[in-house]
Structure formats: C-alpha cells, structure tokens
Amino acid sequence: FQMPKPVLAVEGLSVSFDGFKAVDDLNLYIDRNEVRVVIGPNGAGKTTLLDLICGKTRATSGSIQFENRELTKMREYDIVRAGVGRKFQNPSIYENLTVFENLEMSYPAGRTVFGALFFKRSAEVLERVEQVAREIMLHEHLHQQADLLSHGQKQWLEIGMLLMQDPQLLMLDEPVAGMSVSERMATAELLGRISQGRSVLVIEHDMEFVKRIAHKVTVLHQGRVLAEGSMEAVQNNPKVIEVYLGH
Ligand code: ADP
C-alpha cells in the first residue's frame, strides 16, 4: 500500500529580494480534495508563496512539484496550462460582457488566436458553461451583464472563469474580502464543492471563515512554516499565539 502522492509538493523553497528572504526553506504538501488555508501576519510571505507557485516570481532555490511536473522552471502561461488557477483579490472579469460570455471565453479553446477564430459554440462548451454557472450560483444570471452583479457574484464569476479551465489546483487570495455575510456563507460552500477532485489553496485573514473552510491550516511567519494542522491545533499553539493571534 502506498499513500497517495500529494498534488502539490513544495520543498526547500526560498526566494530573496535584495538579500531579504521573503520565503525561506519552505515545505508544503497539499492533497487532492483538500482545502488548505495559509495564514500569517502581514509580510509573512503568503502572497510571495502563491506568486512562486504560479510562476510570477522565480525561486532562488527549492522545488515545486505539481502532479509530477517541476513548476520552478516553467513559464507562467505553461503553469496555467498544467492546471494551476490563481485568483487575485480584484476580479478581472469583463464588465461589459454577460456572465455567459465571460465563462465561454474562458474555455481553453477560446484562448489562442487560432482557437478563437475557429471557435464554435459547441454543445461541449455550452454544457460546461451551464455546469460551471450552476456551481458558482449564477445559472439564473447567465445573460446578465457582469457589471450588474454584486461584488460577491463578481468574485464567483472569476472563480467560474478559472473553473472553465478545469484546474487541479486553485489558489485564491482573500476570496471573501468585502463580501456580505450571506455571500461569505455561500462562498464557504462553494469552496467545499470545488475542492472535490481538486486542491484549493487559500490566503485568508478572516478567522471565522478560515474555521469554516479549512481542512488544514498552515501558519507562515518570516517566510517559514511556524505551525501546521487543524484550525484548533494551530489556534492553541503557543508560538502562533505569540506571533500572530495574540497581538
Ligand atoms: P504577505 O502576503 O504574507 O503579507 P508578502 O509575500 O507580500 O507577505 O511579502 C513578504 C515580504 O517580502 C515582505 O516583507 C515584502 O515587503 C517582501 N516582498 C514581497 N515581494 C517583494 C518584491 N517584489 N521585492 C521586494 N520585496 C518584496
């Protein structure tokens, strides 16, 4: 019997900016079907970690294995194609297009000039748009222009645009910032659904939300893993209380 390999295995990862180690010899393993939340004080290296995984920032040393591929040597675009989706805090949706159009154009075939030229509204694409729209709770808004959506719905639409590409790892930076209470609840359920068959990595500051979504929490401090485990274990860890929760 072999344990299933983690989808993402980060080992000995470091990056320095002018001699300052923003991420310092970091190890992180994430399984399929897992929602992992990374917390930590400002400047802990959370954003830099996500930048490293998606290829926006180049590692100084270490490795990032994703489904048996080494990401540290790959270009950003190829990392997306390998199945890594990243959502930033501000949604980059097309405000003057409908929900349907935003989703449709995010289907992989629409991404290249060649693909776009010969792109047809195939049954396959339509089916995928409908499935994703249901998943992100926007199936009743398919033909609404995106700028008329609520702040929360816009965030879900951007998650939907990532889902159109069927990523195996989805990374989200503070997904509920600025959302209403009911939108937060719905987002927690959404993340639970989309983690099925995938891995989800979230940066989050709202501890109530972390409790709701996290299967496991990783606490970063000064570019290193300070603690890792269940939310409860992490919350009661004296080191964590000292540097983070107790301030
Ligand atoms: P967090 O997301 O946990 O708040 P960041 O990853 O944004 O932390 O930043 C970690 C540290 O690295 C901070 O001290 C920040 O100033 C520094 N840093 C991040 N990116 C750069 C960069 N491109 N150049 C120089 N310093 C950076």
Automatic annotation (TrEMBL):
Keywords: ATP-binding, Nucleotide-binding, Transport
Pfam family, one: ABC_tran
CDD domains: ABC_Mj1267_LivG_branched
GO molecular function, one term: ATP binding
Domain of life: Bacteria
A GO-annotated cellular component: plasma membrane
Domain ABC transporter, residue spans: 8-247
SUPFAM superfamilies, per the entry: P-loop containing nucleoside triphosphate hydrolases
PROSITE patterns for this protein: ABC_TRANSPORTER_2 (PS50893)
Name of protein: Urea ABC transporter ATP-binding protein UrtD
Annotated source species: Stutzerimonas kirkiae
